[in-house]
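Exercise 7.
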Amino acid sequence: MDTDFWLSLKTNFSNFITVAGIRLIYAAGTIIIGLFIIRIIKAFVRRVGSRSNADPSLFSFAYSLVKFASYSLLIFVVGIVLGIQASAFLTLLGAIGLAVGLSLQGSLSNFAGGILILLFKPFKIGDDVSIENATGVVDKIDILYTRIRTVDGRMITIPNGKVSNTSVENFSTFSDRQVKITLHLPFSQNIEELRQILVDTIKQHPKVLKNKPIQVWLDTMHEQSMKILVSCWCQNPNYWQVYFEQTENIKETLLKHNIQFVTLKNA
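Solution. The predicted structure, written as tokens, is:
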């Protein structure tokens, strides 16, 4: 009897190894073919997105979603090939999904935030924005994160859940943008003379819009100084060039007219 038992055990084990080996070979083949198909799908989606007039933000989000769905389907198919019944596999995935969902509630809120961004469009890829103290150009909108490229070459990643629940300052919404420059000058300076000097200087810049007002206003008065606000308008893409060049021009003009800046005590 002992001999029959060990012989039966050996036979069953041999059959198991044979079946398991065949399934592992099929699973490996499925993974290779699946990865190849996913690669083709991603290339196709990228090609369609590049040739169509689809919103880049929507395309970026959809592309991330397609990748996630493709890999999830591949895992499901591999499970079936390995012999896991579809109903059992779906139950297992449901249990795993529930556990992961409870542990990754932040990720689910980020996914929902990504949907809200696409629906309400507070910004899109390429917009110049300020979010969560991060200022720069929107580089990518994934299913979970928004990435901002700063002017100094940094990439800042912000969860979509946080983006959808905070204020977003979009500088690219309108074609024109106001340039504001703050000056601290002696209290004794004549306002009208100062206004004329500054207006004449600002309007000489070729990229300042002529159909928009150039304004010079007294904002705050102190005992020995006054805060002056200077503003003009330019097209959105020219903002930083106009801002820095006008700041230099104003500085040179004030020195030319012997108007000194005031050093603030708390500066």
